[in-house]
Design brief:
By secondary structure, the protein is an all-alpha fold. It is built from 5 helices and no strands. The longest helix has 25 residues. It is flat.
Length: about 100
């Protein structure tokens, strides 16, 4: 997944209609990477708390899911839907941090 992201970064970031999908895949790749035991082990060994790693992983996962929804809603060109998804994403991320 990381190879595909690096390979497609320049063309995707140049074209605004592809940027959202590329960012969505980037969020998914980061979340998946943070699920790898070796990565978690190295982070906890480097004085990062396990709770912080788990929270970061979950926040990025929620962000990725929200970006997928935004990507789908954006194709409908309905502004109210986009605002609703953005507000919902912000609320859910805030609730996750509070929990």
């Amino acid at each position: 997944m990381w190879f595909a992201l690096v390979l497609r970064a320049r063309p995707a970031l140049r074209q605004p209609h592809r940027r959202g999908l590329w960012l969505t895949v980037l969020a998914a790749a980061i979340a998946i990477t943070l699920f790898q035991p070796g990565v978690v082990g190295r982070l906890t060994h480097a004085a990062v708390e396990l709770h912080t790693v788990a929270l970061t992983r979950n926040l990025i996962g929620v962000l990725g899911a929200g970006l997928v929804l935004l990507f789908l809603v954006d194709s409908t060109r309905v502004r109210s839907l986009r605002l609703t998804v953005t507000a919902g994403l912000t609320t859910v991320r805030g609730a996750l941090v509070d929990l």
